Recover the amino acids of this structure.
């Protein structure tokens, strides 16, 4: 489509959606890697380290935001060697809270304006979530799926619930540890 005959073309909405999906997948992978790095770093701290030393050290890295997102429960679990999920010692734990969106993106993502009041809108979001889960290839949190598909957090949760009830999606975990994957 040309704008004002100036020869400027825009990506089709299909290409934009695929581009947004790729960005969401990459961002989710980076967040998971950061959580694992932070968990390994925290579990290797000497017992004599102070909180001030920890915060000062994290300010010199990009992990300070990941650290700010940890709950006290996850933090103490990492330090005790159980990991955030109660796993074996030495196993990296996932942070209990997802990292905030990168600066400059704002709250809206591509496709954030979804009308799920109609059946067609709900079906479109369900299809986008299935496509995102295929692209992610592993059990993923709703926070990782939302940037790829657009819509609000509530819309994505409702869609995932519908897909789970229809047996299209498998749900594992609880609360912040809930992960979704295709069956």
């Amino acid at each position: 489509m040309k704008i004002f005959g100036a020869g400027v073309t825009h990506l089709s909405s299909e290409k934009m959606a695929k581009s947004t999906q790729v960005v969401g997948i990459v961002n989710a992978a980076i967040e998971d890697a950061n959580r694992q790095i932070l968990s390994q770093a925290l579990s290797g701290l000497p017992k004599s380290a102070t909180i001030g030393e920890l915060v000062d050290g994290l300010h010199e890295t990009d992990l300070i935001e990941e650290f700010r997102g940890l709950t006290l429960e996850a933090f103490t679990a990492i330090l005790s060697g159980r990991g955030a999920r109660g796993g074996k010692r030495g196993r990296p734990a996932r942070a209990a809270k997802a990292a905030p969106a990168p600066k400059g993106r704002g709250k809206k993502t591509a496709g954030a304006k979804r009308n799920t009041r109609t059946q067609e809108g709900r079906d479109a979001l369900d299809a986008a979530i299935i496509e995102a889960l295929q692209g992610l290839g592993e059990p993923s949190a709703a926070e990782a799926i939302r940037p790829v598909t657009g819509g609000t957090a509530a819309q994505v949760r409702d869609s995932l619930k519908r897909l789970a009830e229809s047996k299209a999606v498998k749900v594992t975990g609880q609360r912040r540890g809930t992960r979704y994957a295709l069956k």
About this structure: The mean pLDDT is 75. The chain is about 50% helix and 5% strand. The radius of gyration is 19 Å. Residues 1 and 115 are 25 Å apart (CA to CA).
